[in-house]
């Protein structure tokens, strides 16, 4: 087993960073993969980060019966550094965003029948 951990040992609430990097020349692709694997089974559950001329992508792949879970909320960063939070609260799917300095919310009630 190999483990990596970065901690704030003196308890000063300092930020910590663990960096795992693949660095290449400008003519080659750099890839980092984190994989969960069990003996005798396919290696189809992994996180794949790639930087190349044709693709700057992050793939989170699972087997056909698998799932991807992200805790609490997902924060998306747009091309102009605009932020959007996506999360579920009670029975509502919520999108929180900044509209010219005003925080706005759009939501979809997931407990109702019919379309939004």
Question: Can you describe this structure?
Answer:
The chain has 116 residues and is an all-beta fold. It has two domains: 66 residues, no CATH class; 47 residues, no CATH class. It contains no helices and seven strands. It starts with 29 loop residues before the first strand and ends in a 7-residue tail after the last strand.
- Main β-sheet: number of strands, strand sense, barrel status? 4 strands, antiparallel
Distance between the termini: 48 Å
| Poorly predicted segments | none
Number of helices: 0
The total domain count is 2
Q: Total strand count, please?
A: 7
| Percent of residues in helices | under 10%
Feature tags:
single chain; 116 residues; mainly beta; 2 domains; 4-stranded antiparallel sheet; 3-stranded antiparallel sheet
């Amino acid at each position: 087993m190999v483990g990596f951990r970065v901690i704030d040992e003196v308890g000063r609430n300092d930020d910590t960073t663990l960096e795992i990097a693949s660095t290449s020349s400008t003519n080659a692709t750099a890839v980092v993969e984190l994989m969960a694997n069990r003996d005798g089974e396919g290696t189809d559950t992994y996180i794949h980060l790639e930087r190349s001329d044709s693709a700057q992508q992050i793939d989170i792949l699972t087997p056909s019966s698998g799932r991807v879970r992200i805790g609490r909320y997902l924060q998306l960063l747009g091309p102009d550094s605009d932020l959007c939070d996506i999360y579920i609260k009670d029975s509502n799917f919520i999108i929180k965003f900044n509209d010219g300095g005003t925080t706005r919310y759009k939501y979809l009630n997931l407990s109702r029948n019919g379309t939004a």
